[in-house]
Design goal:
The protein has one helix at residues 46-130; strands spanning 2-7, 10-15, 18-27, 39-44. By secondary structure, it is α+β, with helices and mostly antiparallel strands. The protein has a 4-stranded antiparallel β-sheet with strand order 1-2-3-4. The N and C termini lie far apart (116 Å). Keywords: Coiled coil. Residues 32-59 are annotated as: Disordered.
Length: 131
């Protein structure tokens, strides 16, 4: 979209977000019959346009890089927080498994003690029946 204004033969505006300044000059061309065509010639200062475009483009690139850098920093912070949380969960699970293992060993010892007591009782019972 073009947005221009004319001021003393200079037209200025924005083209695709870039400031543009054009100089409008009327050129008198006469045809074979001596009639003037009244054509207008538009000239643009390439240095100003290129510099403005480069500066604007450079600013846009810098802003995009800053936005990307900020997003990367945010994602890195989130990743660090998630790693910390995962490490905490891992420690909790390891402690839980250790407690389960200790409980399992305790139950195994109790069961073995019960089995040994039952064998002793059976053996005493057999000995009493033999006498």
């Amino acid at each position: 979209m073009l947005d221009f204004r004319i001021d003393n033969g200079v037209t200025a505006g924005m083209m695709m977000g870039i400031p543009v300044e054009l100089e409008v000059t009327t050129v008198e061309n006469h045809n074979e019959m001596g009639e003037s065509s009244g054509q207008a010639m538009i000239e643009q200062d390439d240095e100003d346009h290129n510099e403005a475009g480069e500066n604007s483009g450079q600013a846009m690139l810098e802003q995009d890089e800053k936005n990307e850098h900020d997003k990367i920093q945010e994602l890195m912070q989130q990743l660090a927080a998630e790693k910390k949380r995962a490490a905490t969960y891992k420690r909790h699970l390891e402690m839980l498994f250790e407690q389960i293992e200790q409980h399992n060993e305790s139950l195994t010892k109790r069961i073995q003690h019960i089995v040994d007591n039952v064998r002793d009782l059976e053996q005493r019972d057999r000995q009493q029946n033999q006498v």
